[in-house]
Structure to design on (611 residues):
């Protein structure tokens, strides 16, 4: 049973033997979390007959699996599509949510509290409720089988991010804005010159979160995209898994190599944005 | 501009005096009204077009038969009657509940245990925190494909590891009884976010509380239930609610692992979660009216669950200094 005796404030810096059992357990947990990904990379380099051999180092290296993935499917297109859609989705939602959040944080306008209450309550709404009519809207606009429905809604802000950014904007001392106003600063330049730069870390968090969400999303691409050339990476990966592995051909090495291709950009993003991401996750719950 | 001076002069006095009639707002207040609405306008427009409008439309559609070929035909309550007569609706609903009942409590407990251990290892905690979060970066489709292999009954790594300790693992991905535990396992692998949240909450618990408890001779269990749990109850509550809502809408993993164009008609219904069946009705069978009714049923269920959780939560959750 884990206990919660907090480390004493002046904990000695040299190694504490009492930590050992925890370190062992945590190392085991780390294997459970990380090893599947290592396994995936390793299996992606094996010939078909050895995919399941669970050896860490492939007995026979077969990097041609990757060449076959790129030959059999427009994977390069999918990566570019996912990057484009992800960037559009993230940029749109960051900018619009920041504007709206600033509106809620700074101005005391009529109906603000009611409006903010409505905004908070939309976070409870399951996507399924609006999914069909929104599909019918895009259908009416002739946007089915284009990538626009995958990100265009983000131009109008997203309740959760508005809520999060508003908390950050509220943390900026009001005197800063008043001083700017005395100096003849307009509302928009107050947003652009003061609020926006001061909340850069929060904006990066929103951008990275939305990019990650967009990169991982399967349902919207399933609903809106039909032409394989327009697929995003998860949608394309699903079609590869269906065609090569689940169809009865059991060419798992192809599906695995394609999975690795879908994962790697996210790992790179994590490597660079790690601090932002982890701190972001931690603050979301505290602000929430 | 003399705006600020004006505001001081008018804002404080003008409003209380003219109560009763429509309060005359100062030019500056009206200007602020206008500016505020300008800033929130994108969301207001988006809300009307993509949330409020579609909500009404979907409610209306749920009383119709609409297959996208011809205009919706009103069918009264037929779709709702069908909800309770279609065995697959009930089956998918119970599948979803079973999955959530496995994932949410186990996820909460595992994440809490891991977070509390991270508190005990000093600086090394940062490394483990990063390692635990890594799976969250994996797109659900890739994670689904990966677990289809790891959970393979004959050759999968999971059963191999279980074999080391003498357990004969089941056919996770093909035995109907084990499909939902498999789905829960995939979700448990992406637990890192919850761990990070708990860790932040644990870091916020004042150390003096534990020291005081030590002086009083409190044991570890007492300290856990009397200090730790109440002090991080806000974070626990937040994650339980968001994880439950997410679990009720789980789609990506189940669809990746068990559904798609090649799925056999005889495929087990044990993996059919609610959102998969809703998706099939809407975009494969084009029963838009029925799917809308399903969506509203899900909405009502989620509202009920969240309401219940809030009722229970309000009794136990301690908000630092806010109540």
């Amino acid at each position: 049973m884990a206990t919660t005796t907090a480390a004493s404030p002046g904990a000695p810096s040299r190694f504490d033997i009492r930590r050992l059992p925890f370190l062992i357990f945590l190392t085991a947990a780390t294997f459970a979390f990380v090893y599947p990904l290592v396994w995936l990379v390793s299996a992606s380099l094996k010939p078909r007959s050895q995919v399941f051999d669970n050896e860490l180092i492939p007995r026979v290296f077969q990097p041609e699996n990757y060449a076959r993935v790129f030959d059999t499917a427009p994977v390069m297109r999918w990566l570019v599509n996912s990057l484009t859609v992800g960037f559009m989705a993230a940029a749109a939602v960051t900018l619009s949510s920041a504007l709206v959040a600033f509106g809620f944080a700074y101005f005391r306008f009529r109906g603000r509290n009611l409006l903010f209450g409505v905004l908070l309550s939309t976070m409870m709404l399951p996507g399924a409720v609006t999914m069909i009519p929104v599909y019918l809207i895009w259908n009416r606009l002739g946007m089915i089988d284009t990538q626009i429905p995958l990100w265009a809604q983000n131009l109008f802000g997203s309740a959760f991010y508005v809520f999060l950014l508003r908390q950050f904007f509220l943390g900026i001392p009001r005197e800063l804005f008043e001083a700017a106003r005395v100096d003849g600063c307009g509302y928009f330049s107050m947003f652009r010159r003061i609020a926006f730069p001061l909340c850069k870390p929060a904006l990066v968090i929103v951008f990275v979160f939305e990019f990650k969400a967009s990169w991982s999303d399967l349902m919207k691409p399933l609903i809106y995209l039909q032409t394989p050339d327009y697929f995003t990476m998860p949608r394309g990966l699903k079609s590869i898994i269906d065609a090569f592995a689940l169809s009865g051909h059991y060419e798992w090495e192809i599906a695995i190599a394609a999975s690795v291709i879908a994962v790697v950009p996210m790992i790179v993003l994590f490597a660079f944005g790690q601090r932002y991401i982890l701190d972001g996750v931690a603050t979301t719950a505290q602000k929430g | 501009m003399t705006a600020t001076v004006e505001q001081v002069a008018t804002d404080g006095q003008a409003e209380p005096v003219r109560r009763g009639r429509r309060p005359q707002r100062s030019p500056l207040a009206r200007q602020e009204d206008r500016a505020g609405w300008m800033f929130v306008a994108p969301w207001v427009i988006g809300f009307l077009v993509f949330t409020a409008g579609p909500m009404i439309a979907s409610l209306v559609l749920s009383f119709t038969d609409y297959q996208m070929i011809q205009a919706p035909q009103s069918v009264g309550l037929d779709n709702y009657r069908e909800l309770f007569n279609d065995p697959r609706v009930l089956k998918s609903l119970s599948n979803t509940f079973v999955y959530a009942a496995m994932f949410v409590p186990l996820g909460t407990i595992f994440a809490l245990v891991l977070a509390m251990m991270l508190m005990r290892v000093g600086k090394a905690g940062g490394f483990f925190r990063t390692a635990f979060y890594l799976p969250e970066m994996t797109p659900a489709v890739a994670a689904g494909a990966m677990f289809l292999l790891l959970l393979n009954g004959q050759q999968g790594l999971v059963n191999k590891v279980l074999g080391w300790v003498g357990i004969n693992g089941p056919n996770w991905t093909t035995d109907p009884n084990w499909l939902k535990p498999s789905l829960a396992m995939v979700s448990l692998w992406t637990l890192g976010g919850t761990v990070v949240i708990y860790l932040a909450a644990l870091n916020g618990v004042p150390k003096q509380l534990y020291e005081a408890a030590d002086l009083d001779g409190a044991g570890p269990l007492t300290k856990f239930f009397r200090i730790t749990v109440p002090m991080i109850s806000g974070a626990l509550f937040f994650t339980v609610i968001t994880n439950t809502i997410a679990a009720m809408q789980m789609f990506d993993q189940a669809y990746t692992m068990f559904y798609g164009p090649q799925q056999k008609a005889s495929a087990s219904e044990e993996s059919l979660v609610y959102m998969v069946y809703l998706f099939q009705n809407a975009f494969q069978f084009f029963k838009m009216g029925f799917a809308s009714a399903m969506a509203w049923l899900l909405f009502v269920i989620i509202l009920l669950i969240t309401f219940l959780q809030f009722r229970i939560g309000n009794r136990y959750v301690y908000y630092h200094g806010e109540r």
Summary: Confidence is low (pLDDT under 50) at residues 1-19 of chain B. Chain B is about 70% helix and 0% strand.
